Fold this sequence. Notes:
272 residues; 9 strands; Rossmann fold; three-stranded antiparallel sheet; binds magnesium ion
Amino acid sequence: MNAMTDVVATTSDAREGASVEAASITKRFAMAGGGEVVALSGVDLALAPGSFVAVVGPSGCGKSTLLRLIAGLETPDAGAIRIDSEPPSVAAAQHRIGVAFQDHALLPWLSVRQNVALPFRLAGVPVDEARVASLVAMVGLAEFAGARPSQLSGGMRQRVSIARSLALSPRLLLLDEPFGALDLVTRRALNLEMQRVWESLRTTTLLITHSVDEAVQLADRVIVMASRPGRLHASFDVVLERPRTRATTQGDAFVALTRRVAGALDDAMAQP
Ligand SMILES: Nc1ncnc2c1ncn2[C@@H]1O[C@H](COP(=O)(O)OP(=O)(O)OP(=O)(O)O)[C@@H](O)[C@H]1O
Ligand SMILES: [Mg+2]
C-alpha cells in the first residue's frame, strides 16, 4: 500500500476542502407500527475547509442519518445544511462529495477496477485509468483489479468502496464506518494511508467510526453523539502532532484523550 504518492501525483486537480454548516438539524422517521423516531434533534455542526472530524456514538444515535443528510440523500425536517454555502444537492450534482458507506454497495457485475471507475461514468467524464489504477493499488488490491465483488472478502470490498469514494477528488469525504469489517492489521495500515492522503489533499472529511482510537488518531476534532433523540453530546479537539504514528498512539497524550472520549461515550450511552 505505497501507491499514495501516485494517487497524489495524479490528483494535480485536487480541489480544496469544502466547508460544511449544519444548523439546528432535526430528522424524524415514521415507524412501521405507527409513531415516529426522532433520529436527530437540534444538531449543529460546522466543518472548516480541510478539517477532519470523527463522530462516535451508540448504535442508532443518528450517525448515518447525519451523514446521509450532509450527502443530500435525505432532507432534514427542520434546520439547514450548507456545503460551501450551497445545499447538499448542488454539491452532490457537481461531484464535490465522495461517500463510502457502511453497506459498501458495489455493483456485483463490475470488476474492482470498474467499480472504482464508476463515479467517472456516473459523472459522464472520461475515466482516468491511471488514477483508477493508483487508487486500486493504494488500497492494496492491484492483484484483484479484475476480480468481482463476490470473489472478495468483506474487508476487501470495503477497501474498494474507499478507493471509489476518492475517484473524483472530492472536496468533501463522508465515510460511514469504512473500516468496520477490516482486521486490525489492515485497519491500521489503512488508517496510516488515509492520514497520508488526507494530509496531502486536505479534503474535508467526516468519519463515522466505532473506534475511539481510530477517531483520535485521525481527526482534528472528535464528536460524541447520544441517542433518543440523536444529538451532539460532547466535542474534543485533538491537538496531537501529525503524522500520528504507532508511537503517537502509545504516548501519554493520546492515551489520556482516548480515555476522556471513551468516558464521554460511556456517559452518552448511560443516558436514556
Ligand atoms: N430510512 C429510515 N426509516 C426509518 N427509520 C430510520 C431510517 N433510517 C434511520 N432510521 C432510524 O433512525 C435512528 C438512527 O439511525 P442511524 O442509522 O442514523 O443510526 P447510527 O447511529 O448510524 O447507528 P449504527 O451505529 O448502528 O450504524 C434509528 O432509530 C433508526 O431506526
Ligand atoms: Mg450507521
